[in-house]
Design a protein that fits this description.
Length: 76
């Protein structure tokens, strides 16, 4: 299985973790509430996991232009 971290704004692949040693505690998923898990984590039928987060570039853009965070794809 693999875990892919994808920016929810620009859809850039931020990082990728592969291997069978992946567990939710190590990834910090247990720190999220049920609602957050539902919002940020997508588990695919083949076991792969996609985690939606914000990349450094978009974090910076949103800090400079907070109104952009209201849009799902501010840079497109
Ligand atoms: Zn981004």
């Amino acid at each position: 299985m693999s875990v892919n971290y994808v920016c929810k704004h620009c859809h850039t692949l931020i990082g990728r973790v592969e291997g069978s040693e992946i567990d939710e505690t190590r990834l910090g998923f247990h720190l999220l509430t049920e609602a957050e898990r539902h919002e940020y984590i997508k588990v695919h039928t083949n076991g792969d996991v996609t985690v939606r987060m914000t990349c450094d570039f978009c974090t910076e853009a949103i800090q400079m232009h907070p109104e952009l965070s209201l849009l799902s794809s501010p840079l497109q």
